[in-house]
Amino acid sequence: MIVILEPQLDGDSSQTAAVLQHLRSVAGITPKIHQVTGEQQVLTEIYLVGNTAGLDRAEIEALPGVNRVVKVSRAYAVLGRHTGDSRSYGFTYNGVTFNQDNFNLFAGLCAVDTRAHVEQMMKAVADMGLNCTRMGAYKPRTNPYSFQGHGAECLPWVFELAGKYGIKVIAMEITHDTHIAQINAALKDSGNPTGVMLQIGTRNTQNFELLKACGRQNDHPVLLKRGFGITLEESLNAAEYLASEGNRKVIFCLRGMKTNMGDPHRNFVDFSHVPVIKRMTHMPVCIDPSHSVGTRARAPDGLLDVFHATAQGIIAGANMVLIDFHPNPASALVDGPQALTMDELVHYVEDIDIARQAYLARKKRAAE
Amino acid sequence: MIVILEPQLDGDSSQTAAVLQHLRSVAGITPKIHQVTGEQQVLTEIYLVGNTAGLDRAEIEALPGVNRVVKVSRAYAVLGRHTGDSRSYGFTYNGVTFNQDNFNLFAGLCAVDTRAHVEQMMKAVADMGLNCTRMGAYKPRTNPYSFQGHGAECLPWVFELAGKYGIKVIAMEITHDTHIAQINAALKDSGNPTGVMLQIGTRNTQNFELLKACGRQNDHPVLLKRGFGITLEESLNAAEYLASEGNRKVIFCLRGMKTNMGDPHRNFVDFSHVPVIKRMTHMPVCIDPSHSVGTRARAPDGLLDVFHATAQGIIAGANMVLIDFHPNPASALVDGPQALTMDELVHYVEDIDIARQAYLARKKRAAE
Amino acid sequence: MIVILEPQLDGDSSQTAAVLQHLRSVAGITPKIHQVTGEQQVLTEIYLVGNTAGLDRAEIEALPGVNRVVKVSRAYAVLGRHTGDSRSYGFTYNGVTFNQDNFNLFAGLCAVDTRAHVEQMMKAVADMGLNCTRMGAYKPRTNPYSFQGHGAECLPWVFELAGKYGIKVIAMEITHDTHIAQINAALKDSGNPTGVMLQIGTRNTQNFELLKACGRQNDHPVLLKRGFGITLEESLNAAEYLASEGNRKVIFCLRGMKTNMGDPHRNFVDFSHVPVIKRMTHMPVCIDPSHSVGTRARAPDGLLDVFHATAQGIIAGANMVLIDFHPNPASALVDGPQALTMDELVHYVEDIDIARQAYLARKKRAAE
Amino acid sequence: MIVILEPQLDGDSSQTAAVLQHLRSVAGITPKIHQVTGEQQVLTEIYLVGNTAGLDRAEIEALPGVNRVVKVSRAYAVLGRHTGDSRSYGFTYNGVTFNQDNFNLFAGLCAVDTRAHVEQMMKAVADMGLNCTRMGAYKPRTNPYSFQGHGAECLPWVFELAGKYGIKVIAMEITHDTHIAQINAALKDSGNPTGVMLQIGTRNTQNFELLKACGRQNDHPVLLKRGFGITLEESLNAAEYLASEGNRKVIFCLRGMKTNMGDPHRNFVDFSHVPVIKRMTHMPVCIDPSHSVGTRARAPDGLLDVFHATAQGIIAGANMVLIDFHPNPASALVDGPQALTMDELVHYVEDIDIARQAYLARKKRAAE
Q1: Is D246 an interface residue toward A (CB < 8 Å)?
Q2: Fewest CB atoms within 10 Å of the CB: B293, D20, D220, D320?
Q3: Which ipTM was obtained for this model?
Q4: Model pTM?
Q5: Distance from the D45 Cα atom to the nearest Cα atom in chain A, whole angstroms
Q6: What residues form DSSP beta bridges with D251?
């Protein structure tokens, strides 16, 4: 249940306090305040979490300062598309806009290794006229004895290089809430030369403590990868954890499901779910063809499977792509075998463009 | 192991007989003769099935009439792409060509119900300038008490209508070897007004007796659907059954895998495997978006998930599409809820065209 | 819907004919006659297959000769356990009884190879005081170039040896309806020295034509293995195909599900479903630990995983076990690596006995 | 690679420091010290994590203070069973011993709700002569709006009640590293009346930060549940994370895999892997039948599926059972429908005993 306050009220007003006090007195209910910044005004909404079955909607609507009460029937209260739901979609972060209509490419390194590689990657991205990248500092690895990433140490120079090449957003996986503070500190120390999109990997899709920590901050958007052993519904519930804590800047990422039915690909590519996510929620949809496909195998038509999977996601309306490149895949510390090489970047961007144009043509035709 | 005879020899020559006699004398080996019709000549090949490990290649090559012996290391001896393999690909049936480069659309009824519906469907297909369709007479159903198809009874008038509307190929599922004879009889009785592509469904992918029966005839091509509970490798081995019996006119069809990870789709759409099949074998690749997606859900961009899945298959190079239409889905006896309606056919064909053009542009760019 | 006729009526009476004529006149309905042989009398039941929604029950009950009409709400009309369902369970074939309470062990060869091995196996079984075995003559193989079984040729001497050693029932996989006639001919020619339980393998669980053929005969019971890529509900529907054609002598066999989640076992052992099958249907439940486990790996307690899996099925109430032995696994033509050796038979039988006694003790305690 | 120091050396000696200094100077290697407390002495081992391929074993063995170097070929360096590996197994915690030979039952509440229920449960456990239980204070929930557990608040009175009823070990799920400190503080404040086994749930199996935090402390043993969407190998690697940080007191828990192939059970029961875990590692194996089965369905023999699944795990050698009871399942805040009732406890314990005795008889027979 969502209690929407009168437009002039903010979270600090006395009327807001009175409404909150009333709601807190109801057993089994935890009210949470959300500020929704629109173009004209700031709206204050109170989400009621817990056993809302016994609440009297009319009684709450009668409280001074309450504009209206929205009953949420589906699980994804904040992120879901509800009948008659006219709330605004998408967001802009550090000058880059993310929504269900546009498209952003995040080409970069799976894992930060050397400064030379990071600079080479960022320069190539900038040369293509792009302003986003991916760079992994914290790497969760299946085997405890594998390389675990450079961690906080590399952040200062990674951010500095991002600023040098005009990178506006770096998608960066985190695996513990303390990483948020480390990233914030490094950004501040380096004069905020870039922005960071916090990325939660498939092994942590249901790490609810991490989700809550990312949801409690509003500085950075969050990219949540689908969990590889759970249903789509459960992964969408995980996204809702972020939003239920207050952060609506959430992007959902398809990355393949783990089952041998997907062999010889590393995972079972699930990009047919692009339109499903868009139908069920407001989230922009990202695809991660590198980890889904996991090989550099090539079809007889001369195109790598990774190119094909990318085109499949885009022609169905994907809004973002995370893709691994590496200046020297053979020396990469993580997932080298699946990385594209720098000289494949131009082709990749052009291939994406063909698929994106086809999607736009399909969408235009559908509207006729 | 494949024993390729001298070009002038056919299966009836005395040298061929002598070679066969020799090969049959080897314990644990079953030789099978294949006639390969090329543009210039007819080649006779002998496939050695069984325990070939102990065979002496030089000894066989020394037999009079043997041109050379090819050692087949991979499982898919006939259909697989082997290193240095220059055998010809694709085939033409009843005037329609099928290979890994071109494209054919099979829009039609999942199950034949009334003559009016069949005629309405075929007329619509012909009006679009198409000459293939799908029509199910034999329907395997999960529940024994569900409608099981009209069977052989409907064949005469279905074929007659196909002739009337210039349909060259009907994809038609069969579930027992006797259905082949029934189809042949009905075709003959009606003066061969059309052609039939024998279709083997996912429940029969490893029904080896049915595969052998389809493989022993060379009148009709065979469309084999991927098995929904087995690995891709096992499904490709099933296709090889057809070819090992002598029929190389085989098309492989992706139709989604059965796992709840694909929810809310009926099956987990597996069209990312289109380039994989083309890389591993010579078979043209078909996609079946109707049964993969299984719903008429629509994305906010106005396009049905079935349209999106189709576009995903085609932009990655699919060569054929099987798609369910129905004049009145609500009255359809089988799989009505997933069928497209007749007034969606034009849009569907145009949507496919956008994706196909995008694929061709991608392929052209890759060749630069 | 099941129409139960008056006890004195059989399938040939004129009243039965009149009832049938009436039912056949209803559009969309196919009536099928079943004879149910009880201890006191023979009951004739008519199963109505098809669109029964519009039938008027009272009208049918008013027909002369109709005792009562049972509305079947669940899918498994014949084999399912229905509320208030008091029909008799289990059956006796060639002197051996199969039901949900007792236990039979079928130790034998996965595939018939040499006469010596068959005789060695049957002698060992007889020496243990057992009278059932498994012997595969028709072997469906993933790879078309693998050994496919000796087929009908070996039947005469296999049956003769069975007679020599007092084997009452041989479980024998068939893959085509013609195999039934071959088996019947061989049995007749050899003077019916033994009985055959027709076994349908996991690749043919939804080969409905084969199911119907096995269901139309009432000479032999049928063992249906669970399909490895489908839901349990779909496999039970497949069993119902057998019964809907008239053969209620059906045993359901768990044999593991195909998913890499079961690694390092060959399949994911599914014997936790033993009590589920017994709850949902009347069928005796068989387990196939050989194919489920697929290895000869051994735990530190000295027991093979195959022994453990067997014990797990039995302590939960399994009624039958199919198990592969081989006098010389290294030379076995099919699935040798998973076979037990002849000198393990005594231990295996004793191990089973411990588990079976434990089950009986558990059942007794539950009834207190 | 494991560097085992001379017995007399501990972690603080100057020779140890010199060895460490040498190892730290090697690029790409992180050495970690483990103290292994045996009955006679304390052994110091140094685990080398990272790129050990280039290390010269002889050179390291030549360092003063090094006894020998063990090359670890398999992934599970610490927990795995290696050829010729004679390290000691099992551990004792707060007076209760856990190893691959004995058995402990943990019956308790899935989630702590009221003090009355906790006390009722502990009293029942104590009345049965048992001294372990399960009590969930921190509950990870799929839906963010569901009850999330009482958290740290309930710990003082839960521990106090445990002390009152002589409970020695409480299995308690944690979802964040801060929970360890909260538990330690509550234990200390209440005078350490009981012990806690830290439990990591299936959603956090690959939450490596949580694993490392649990691995870095040696106060409490850790129960790791298998991850529901990953391979067994990946879950065992997760267990190795705990050990690689220094805590060898690890128990591995099977809890079913998430796939609709397991329907109508909540998860696909995977207890056939009990002997597999014991063969591959030194860890005691726990089973969690409550979450695996997830229903209170009952077989015609009168036994609940949960009883059957438990018996299946135990007859194959399971060393521990986690099982949900509740005084009033209808009012339980988490997973009520699957809980056993208090009056089923006696029967459950007796049923377990039958299965355990059968396992011991099987083991004895195997050793003959």
Answers
A1: no
A2: D20
A3: 0.87
A4: 0.88
A5: 16
A6: D223
